[in-house]
Structures are given as C-alpha cells and as structure tokens.
Write a structure and sequence with these properties.
homodimer; 289 residues; alpha/beta; 5-stranded parallel β-sheet; 4-stranded antiparallel β-sheet; 10 helices; 12 strands; elongated; DNA-binding
DNA sequence: CCGCGTGTGAACATCCTGTGACGATTGTCT
DNA sequence: AGACAATCGTCACAGGATGTTCACACGCGG
C-alpha cells in the first residue's frame, strides 16, 4: 500500500478532513512580478504549486491533477472562454480562480457562469488571492460530516476508512487505493445504483469519456478480491446500461431452518450493519460459518 | 420529476436538473436600492428569497435553512466578525457572499478565512452578485444532491429511482433501462395521457419518425412484466390514436378485500387519471383488453 | 365492410459488460 | 542512479443483454 500520500487530496470521494495541508495549485500567468510573489507565498504555505507561463491546452491541465488553478485569462487570448468552458466541463471539481486585468461586469458574469469559482481583478494583493483560493478549495471538500467515525460493514466485509482497507474476518483484502475508494464509494451509497459516469467523476475527478472501461475493470478487480475472501456473498451488482449497486447478499439458500434458535441473534444491530437497503427482504444472513 | 429523463436530455450524469431551481437565498442589507434591484432579479430567477434589513442573530439565520446568504457586514457593526464566525461554524454548507462597501485587503482576507465564500465590493452590479452566488451554490450541491428520491407508487408497484427499478411486493420487475425510463415517465405523468411522440422524444431524445413502433414494443414489454408480477391490476391504458396513460386500476370488482393492505393504493393518482381528458372530448377509453 | 392503428412474437443488429493480457507509470529498495 | 515491484489504464475479444425492425393478426372507428 503506502498509497495514501497524495491519495486523498484530489478527487477524494470521502476525503479525510485532516489533510488540509497538501494542495496542488497551478498558476497560469505571465506577470513575472505577480508570479514571483505568489510563488513565494505558496512555498511558505507548503502548497505544491506549478507556474505556467504559456497557454496550456485544457487537456494538459487535466493531467496535472490540481486542486485549484489561478489563471489570467489574458494569457489565453481570444480562446479563453472556450478554454475555460472545456476545462470546467472536464474537471467539475477543480477550483478555478480567475485573476486578470480590468474586465466588464459581463465578462466576469460570463466567466463565473462558465464554471469559474472566483474572479479577482488585478492589481490585487497576493494574500487575497491565497485567501480566495483557500475559500474555493474549502468549499470543495464535501465530506465535512463524514469523518472516519464508523466503519462500514456489509455482509462479511468491514470497510475502515481510517485504514484505507477492507477486511473480512480481520483479514485485509489488500485493496489498492483505487479499489478501496471504489468500494468505499459504492458502500456509502447505501444500496443505491451509481451510474458509471458518477463513479468515474467522483473517483477520478474528471468527467468520463465514452468508452472508458476503467470503472468496469476496477469493479472486476474488487469482485475478485471480495470473492476470494468472502465466497458465499455477492456484493457488487451490475445494472445493465446504468452502473453498479453495492449490497451484501448471501448465496446461502433459505437456510433459516438451519439456524438454531438457541443462538440469539442481535437482529437490530445486524440489520443496521447490513448496507443492503431495508428492502431485499430476504437477507437471511445465515452467517453459519 | 422524471429524473432520469431530464438528466438524459442535458447529458448530466449525476445532477438532477430540478435541484437547481430550489434555492433559498437571504439578503442582509440596508441599501434599499440595492435590495430592490436584487430582489427583482431574484424574483425573475424564481429563487425563494428573503430580505433582512436589521442585524439578525446568527442562530436565527440557521433556522432559515438557506442555500446562500448575501450580507453587508456594515449592517452588523463591530460584531460582524464574531457573527460571521459563528454562522460559518454553525452552517459550514451555507454559501456566504459578503457584499459590502470599501474594505482593506486585510479585512477581505479575514472574512474569507473566517468562512465567507466570496467577497464583493460595492458598488457592484446585481448580475455579478447573482453570478457569484450561483458559483458558490454550484459547488455546494454535490453532496446532498441526491436526496430527493421519493418512491413513487401506484397500485401494487413501487418505482424507485434510486435503484432504476420497479418493485411489486419487494420483488424486482427486472426492467431494462428503457423499460424503467418508460414506466417512470408514464407514472410521473400522474394519469395524464402521453402522446407517442412525446414519449418518444423524452425517452429517445429526438423526434420520432413516422411508423416507428418502438414505443409500442416497450409498452408491451412493460405490460408483460407488470402483468406477470401484478396480475390483478392494469396499469398502462391505450388511448387509440393518441398514446398511453398510466393509472393503477384493480380488476377486482369492488372486492378490494383481495388487495393486500401492505401496500397503500394511490387512489389520488387514480382519480386524477380518470378526470384527465385534456384532448378533445373523445376520451372513450378503449382500455378494454 | 374497409382502412388504419395497435398488439404480438420473433429475427436481427447493436450495444454493454466480463475478462485476460499488455504496456505505461509510479514509487520503493538496493 | 538503476533495478524492481506494484498499480493503473487501455486494448481486444467473447458472450450475453438489450434495442430495433419486421411481418402478421386483431380490433377500433368510420
């Protein structure tokens, strides 16, 4: 493993609030003075950052896996709008702060509507730029309420966010980062069907291109590991043409007759544990192993 | 309503289009001119909004269940910072846009650091205020966005958008994607008759060519599956020369004793369905099979 | 009674997913 | 630095599920 270094910062489905420090920022600008001051400040904050002086294709920005981007639209010339639109379309979760020279209200409105998160007019104080970037990034992390309090369990598996691992009978499944993020995302959906596009955008951070099989492949890897450790259960269900649904379902058939009444089962706690929606009534969990 | 269909039209993978409409905004300001213009604009947008002219306790704001708040800190006087801090602490998900008179960089930075999402300096154009509020709200809606999934029921069937499935007595009908979209569309029409062309254009996304039987075929498949799982009910009714209407109707003659009480019958939808004869009087309900 | 719209079943074409393997990339260890 | 291992993303293929079209039977409406 040892994956978790940069793991959570970008595109984290349920990031840990702790890692507010590690941020990847890029600044696209030509004003050397501005860049210099800003860079120094970013250094002191310990934010990983990168300066781009020339118009970078939107696709290239996507590959940088940024948390936020500060951009002077002037650098991009006339195609700035198109560029901005494409970028926002591809990375809905990227924080974009436009920091540019004098502009009209209409321009600012247009930029914000296209997907920019903030718009600062030069000249401006670098400290304010920093503060606005922070503000944008702060808003981005959703899971404010979802701290790593409760380990999720379903069927035989237990998903521990604090360990970045899933376990069956205390034995780790040895999930990789992506695999874990996937199972965590699915399990957190509480039995709802998640569409491929949504899974992709929440795990990878940008929008999926048609024909991408990444989600399928990782679902397969997950299923393999789940099946190996918990053969009598099915967890990930395919919904053809839509996506996947996570729900623990036992393969043991109608074995309730087998369950001796002598063993008192804590139905309440058990039911809560099951992620399987309240329906799927015949959960019958004869954990007779 | 009809999540999946509308979602389809705008190619939005996860976003429920309807959610963008329901916004609750409050404006805390004393500048009557500003308020007036802003209010008018908010009205036209259809956003539910409320104007507060006097310093409202932070707790009171909490009770308003807002999506966003536009506030002139000047109204709050010297306690503005404390007020802001408390509010942000209590409602981390509330979008807060400070819109106030001249300020120093330090003040703006402080406000943003305390939790404000944006800071606009007056005088400013109301359209920009709107755009910035939208930008702030846009980011926020992801996490809770998918809560409005209310199971729709009619007769014995229950349509669950979160599972892309319909159920009868908790047993799935195993509908395919198109079948589900169709039943969802029909059911959402609340008993109105939908013309073939409309059904087609809303499910397929483009206009139907004359002679296309796709809708008929899918109606048939749906009827088959419905009949198999719920034989004592009729759901989809043909209106000759027009289209189809969805309404649960029991075949049991007044002997609803048969109807298992476990599932409440949606009488309302049924009644509405009977009345709905929008098109030329010849309703003549040929639903005799 | 005729014309047209609809129900029905099946054949056909298409799309979608499961699967295994391969190269690319990243990070670690020596 | 270089080799090595793990992980990730893409590809091609196969099988199956799904969507579409067609021909024919039937009933409605005029």
């Amino acid at each position: 493993m040892t994956d978790s270094t940069t793991a959570r910062d970008e595109a984290a489905p349920s990031g840990q609030g702790s890692a507010s420090a590690a941020l990847r920022i890029a600044v696209l600008d030509r004003d050397s003075g501005f860049i210099q001051v800003l860079s120094k400040r970013l250094d002191r904050l310990g934010w990983e950052h990168r300066v781009l002086a020339s118009p970078v294709p939107a696709d290239a920005v996507v590959a940088m896996r940024l948390s936020a981007l500060v951009v002077d639209l002037a650098v991009l010339g006339p195609q700035a709008w198109e560029w901005l639109e494409r970028l926002c379309g591809a990375l809905p979760d990227l924080g974009i702060v436009v920091c540019t020279g004098p502009s009209t209200v209409a321009q600012r409105v247009r930029g914000l509507r296209l997907g920019a998160d903030d718009w600062i007019t030069k000249p401006c104080h670098p400290e304010e730029v920093i503060a606005r970037v922070q503000s944008v990034v702060r808003r981005r992390r959703r899971p404010s309420g979802r701290t790593e309090t409760k380990p999720l369990t379903a069927g035989e598996v237990e998903i521990r966010s604090d360990r970045f691992q899933a376990f069956v009978n205390e034995a780790s499944l040895d999930l990789t980062r992506r695999e874990f993020e996937l199972i965590e995302l699915l399990a957190a959906a509480e039995g709802r069907v998640l569409e491929r596009e949504e899974i992709y955008s929440r795990l990878w951070g940008y929008t999926m291109v048609r024909g991408d099989r990444s989600v399928d492949v990782f679902v397969r890897k997950l299923r393999q590991k789940l099946e190996k450790s918990s053969p009598r259960w099915r967890y990930i269900h395919t919904h053809f043409g839509i996506g996947y649904r996570f729900a623990a379902e036992s393969l043991d058939v109608e074995a309730d007759v087998e369950v001796p009444a002598s063993i008192p089962v804590d139905w309440d706690a058990r039911d809560q544990g099951e992620l399987a929606g309240p329906h799927e009534g015949r959960e019958l969990t004869t954990d007779s192993l």
